[in-house]
Model the fold of this input.
Amino acid sequence: MQQIRPISPSSLVEELADRVAARPRGEWVRVALDGAPAARPGDLADALAGPLRIRGREVFRVSAADFLRPASLRFEFGRTDPDSFYTDWFDHGGLTREVLGPLDAGGSGKVLPTLWNSVTDRATRASYVTVPAGGVLLLDGPLLLGRGLPFELTVHLRLSPGALARRTPDDERWTLPAYARYEEEVGPAEIADVVVRVDDPRHPALVAPA
Done:
C-alpha cells in the first residue's frame, strides 16, 4: 500500500533540490523529469535550476522535445499514430550519445543542448557545452523511463488517466493510447526514484511505498 504525502509546489522543489545536491559534489548528476506535457515536467525542471545553483551546482537543461527523430521517421505511419509516437518519435540514441553518455564517470562532459528542430526538420547545429564536474543535467520529457537511459535520479510526474485526458489538448488526444501503453508496459510509477501525483498541479503529492 502506498503512502501519499501532500506537499506544496515550492516544498517539492526544495526537497528535490536537496536530494540532488546531496550527491557527491565531484560527480555529474543526470536527472530525468518524466511526464506527459500535461504534467508540465519542463516547468518542474526549470523551477529546480535556481535552487540547485544556490546549492552550488551548475545546471544544464535539456528537453527531449529537442531530440526528436526526423519527420520521415516520426510520420511514417501518419502524424497521429500513437504507436509511432511511443516507439519512433524520440531519438533516445541521440540523447545517450550526445547528452547522457558524455556524463558517465570518466566521460568528456561535452554535451549537445539540442539536436533536431522539428519545425524546420533539420539539425539545429548547436555547439557543444562542457558541463563542469559536479554539474546537474535536468532532462524533461515524456516516456523517458524503461528505455535504458542512464540517470542518477528519476522523477515521474503521474497523472491519473482521467486527469491526463482532461488536461491534454484536443489536438494531442491521439497520444493518450501511447501513455496507456507506457503505464502497462513500463510502469513508470513503479520504477521511478520519486513519484509525484500532479492531478491538481497546485496541490502535488509525493508517493512512497508503505
